Amino acid sequence: MDEFFSGRSKVHRAMTRLAKALDEAGIPFAIAGAMAVNLHGHARTTADVDILLTREGLEKLASPEGSEPHRRARWRGRGWVEKFPGSKGLRDAVEDVKVDVLLTGEYPGDGKPKPVRFPDPSVAERTPDGLPVLPLDVLLELKIESGTTTTHRPRDLDDAIQLIRVNALPREHAERLDASVRAKFLELWDAAQIDEDF
User: Fold this and answer.
1) What's the rounded Cα separation, in Å, for the pair 144 and 158?
2) What is the predicted pLDDT for the residue at 63?
3) Which residues lie closer than 8 Å to 121 by C-beta, 6 or more apart?
4) What one-character-per-residue DSSP string does 67-114 give?
5) Pairing mode of beta strands 30-32, 48-53
6) Angle (deg, nearest 10), helices 154-166 and 136-149
7) Predicted pLDDT at 79
């Protein structure tokens, strides 16, 4: 845990290595999921890296030279392997870290159509270290939709509560979010005001 919270964990190394490779390949991407939550101020551990890609970006990642053998040659040679044949996810074999790929246009949580969907990675904001990360409001919308539409992802709602708390977001911040998540944001905002020191 000390390594994680000091930014020296294998997850951090995997994220940095992948980000460098994607930048070098000219593939637009954004850090999402728990690592984005960390980059926006809520320190919590995670065992994987979530990245947002377009379908075109995934195709370029999948077959940079236009064929499956080239994919294996290029990415295995740099230490990444498919989680399973045909998977859109990867595993960093150097760090033994899972990399989950989220695709522009798909829906968070249960995957069913809803007002909020994964955006184009061009919305990303660069951190001081140069990592493209989903903006806070986009991350909040995705976390709230995911936690609201699934029963097995309560951590997403807790992430939203902690992001509200650590960023000292005002109640009026709800107006900056998609209308579909505003009521839940206000509920989570109320929860974020509860003093846990008791």
Assistant:
1) 9
2) 61
3) 28, 29, 30, 52, 53, 54, 57, 104, 132
4) SHHHHIIIIIHTTEEESSTT-S-EEETTTTEEEEEEETT--STT----
5) antiparallel
6) 150
7) 82
Digit-by-digit pLDDT tens for the chain (198 residues) are 778 888 889 999 999 999 999 999 999 999 999 999 999 999 999 999 999 999 999 888 766 454 454 444 455 456 888 888 877 888 999 999 999 999 999 999 999 999 999 999 999 999 999 999 999 999 999 999 999 999 999 999 999 999 999 999 999 999 999 999 999 999 999 999 998 765
Residue 128's closest CA among 33, 1, 40?
40
**Residue 67, token pair as written in the block:** 């064929």
Amino acid letter for position 136:
L
Tell me the two tokens of residue 132: 């493209």
Q: How many CB atoms lie within 10 A of CB 67?
A: 10
Tokens 């065992």 appear where?
A: 47
- Tokens standing for 30? 């954004």
The end-to-end CA distance of the chain, in Å, is: 25
Domains, the chain, in order of start with CATH, read 2-192 (3.30.460.40)
Neighbours of 189 (CB within 10 A): 19
Instruction: List Cβ neighbours of 161 (8 Å cut-off, separation of 6 or more).
Output: 188, 191, 192
Contacts of 73 (CB under 8 A, 6+ apart): none
